[in-house]
Amino acid sequence: MLPSCNMLLFFLLWITAYGNTLTIRSTVNSTDLDSEIFTEKISNDTCTNSNECGGKLLCEDGVCQCPIDLFWNGSKCIFKHFDGHSCSSSIECAENLECRESRCQCLESQYWENSKCSPKKDEHALCNSSLECKATLQCKTNHCVCCEQDFWNGQFCEKSKNHSRYH
Ligand SMILES: *[C@@H]1O[C@H](CO)[C@@H](O)[C@H](O)[C@H]1NC(C)=O
Ligand SMILES: *[C@@H]1O[C@H](CO)[C@@H](O)[C@H](O)[C@H]1NC(C)=O
Ligand SMILES: *[C@@H]1O[C@H](CO)[C@@H](O)[C@H](O)[C@H]1NC(C)=O
Ligand SMILES: *[C@@H]1O[C@H](CO)[C@@H](O)[C@H](O)[C@H]1NC(C)=O
Ligand SMILES: *[C@@H]1O[C@H](CO)[C@@H](O)[C@H](O)[C@H]1NC(C)=O
Q1: pLDDT by residue (tens digit) across 79-124?
Q2: With contact defined as beta carbons under 8 Å apart, do 138 and 130 qualify?
Q3: Which residues constitute the signal peptide according to the record (predicted)?
């Protein structure tokens, strides 16, 4: 153990492909050299090179950031979540998914199939589940259809006029 007021300077020498650049990595006060030699930068810390950023973080636009398919959970970059996983923000959800009702989900106009979001289907389209059909349509005998007596107006199932109470 070293006295706590010892001031230690650490330099890191980067030999780049194009020339020699000296970078001051960090200055640390340390009582425990093993755990404090590297004060790696965390998410949003300013940087000039990815080597300065800890873990999987990369230096982009001057700050340490997780790679595209990962997000910063407060302590490290972890993989973004797919459909159905709990979430508190859309940045935690994989591409094309959003955090709705605390779950990563496709947009409301889409459904999750084969690990991706696809547009929901119109009337008459083949289906295996009502989740695949546009709102108000149901999957019956493998086709997206309106309930009996309703008709598809191009956007949603509407009550037939001749069945309305005004008839
Ligand atoms: C190192 O410790 C001294 C005394 O505790 C303090 O004054 C100084 O600001 C510290 N330096 C750094 C870089 O933390
Ligand atoms: C990074 O900074 C931006 C803008 O200041 C902020 O919106 C975002 O929440 C920060 N991200 C993290 C992981 O701290
Ligand atoms: C971040 O993820 C790691 C690894 O899954 C986990 O150990 C840690 O507790 C998480 N941190 C937060 C703040 O959720
Ligand atoms: C319905 O499920 C079957 C069996 O998994 C599959 O072969 C078929 O392509 C699916 N149909 C649609 C419209 O997704
Ligand atoms: C409602 O009226 C339309 C047009 O008058 C007709 O084509 C349709 O069959 C009727 N629907 C029902 C359920 O009777």
Answers
A1: 999 999 999 999 999 999 999 999 999 999 999 999 999 999 999 9
A2: yes
A3: 1-19
Would you list the domain boundaries of the chain?
1-39, 80-116, 120-163
* C-beta separation of 81 from 88 below 8 A: no
CB 152, CB 123: distance < 8 Å: yes
Please tell me the predicted confidence (pLDDT) of residue 145.
97
Ligand 5 pocket at CB < 6 A: 149, 160, 162
The alpha carbon of 86 and the centre of ligand 3 are apart by a number of angstroms equal to: 14
Q: Which ligand is nearest to the CA of 147?
A: 5
Q: Is 71 in the pocket of ligand 2 (CB under 6 A)?
A: no
